Description:
The protein has helices spanning 2-21, 101-107, 109-132, 137-162, and strands at residues 33-39, 42-64, 69-73, 75-76, 81-82, 88-89, 94-99, 165-167, 172-177, 185-186, 191-208, 220-224, 233-240, 250-258, 269-286, 291-293, 296-303, 306-317, 321-326, 333-337, 346-350. The protein is an alpha+beta fold. Strand 18 and strand 19 (321-326) form a beta hairpin.
Amino acid sequence: xxxxxxxxxxxxxxxxxxxxxxxxxxxxxxxxxxxxxxxxxxxxxxxxxxxxxxxxxxxxxxxxxxxxxxxxxxxxxxxxxxxxxxxxxxxxxxxxxxxxxxxxxxxxxxxxxxxxxxxxxxxxxxxxxxxxxxxxxxxxxxxxxxxxxxxxxxxxxxxxxxxxxxxxxxxxxxxxxxxxxxxxxxxxxxxxxxxxxxxxxxxxxxxxxxxxxxxxxxxxxxxxxxxxxxxxxxxxxxxxxxxxxxxxxxxxxxxxxxxxxxxxxxxxxxxxxxxxxxxxxxxxxxxxxxxxxxxxxxxxxxxxxxxxxxxxxxxxxxxxxxxxxxxxxxxxxxxxxxxxxxxxxxxxxxxx
Length: 352
């Protein structure tokens, strides 16, 4: 028994020695992560306040008939058809006429014109005679009074006749038009047409209290609307309230918007970016590539096939971009895709 046990021990020792003299080596090869990179460049970035509001026309009026009479909607010379919704009307242009033959006859416009002509000639004659000593100063004054009375009567007659017309007080667009059949008798005070001028529009906004010392009159504003996804209009801060609401902790402002091309319409909802300041010639990167954790913010750059984590500090930022104050240098190869799984010193492979 003892001999068998000794042989077993000897065999075990020999096996152990053999194992020690021929160790098994295991090598793990790190797989390079494919990434996309961009060279760090300088650009410009703006500090903005994002706000929203409703676009309002600067001028709005509803024109009423001033006299009773038979309704007549005139022809728009631009379209060669009766005035309609959406038509542009010039200042002073007549849109509707009222017809009342009895009223016009009662004014006696032609008689008024003739009276003025007679009074004017008589006054001129009296002036000539007075210079020659043929009439007294009283005669001159009486002829002047007659002339002025005739002129006043004619002016009144023209004013009365002007009330038979519905004219645009400013250049604008017809946004509402009362439907009345031509030739229908309507009374005075009937709402006839609504006119808006929205070549310049305004937006009333409420701005956070913390910006009250940064927002200034005439600061530029970028205006966007979902109907114009690829177009940005321009505006400026027109008015600012110095008071802050104790309930909302905001202060009121009015933005003036240049809408000379009439791309925006009254009542539309608009997004407004108020430009507080801008930095030019600074490093700007996409916000989506910034990794944030308890240690701060960082991005990855590629150096000789290795991803290097760079701690950065941020200046101005927008919804999509951020200014980098420290941590990056112009020309660094910044990882823009594939950074999600990277760690510092990870092996990477640049792909297009």
